[in-house]
Specification:
Elements: H1 2-22, H2 28-43, H3 48-59, H4 66-74, H5 76-81, H6 83-115
Helix pairs in contact: 1-2
Length: 117
Amino acid sequence: MLESLALLLVCQMVGELLVQFIAWPIPGPVVGMTVLFLLLAIRRGVPEHLRQTCLTLLSHLSLLFVPAGVGVVVYFEAIAQEWGIILVALVVSTVATIAVTAFTMNRLARWLDKRHG
């Protein structure tokens, strides 16, 4: 498990370093996740120890929402004053995410259909 955690953290660090050196407007963890994806694609699979570590982390994912919940309580007054803008931002970003995901899945499905005949 320690090896898998180290791999995840190294990929995140590589992503952070790339973002810092190249000045990309993308979060470092996203670039790190892309690096991990490329490594796994080159390897053509996920090692079992990495799979188990990721499943363990995902099973405790709800704990990561506790700080966000505390932040909402701490800044409740500021959120109450700006609720309209926050609501618009949430709706627009959700619709944009769904649209981009649908477009990407549509293109991927067409590409896979052409590839497999």
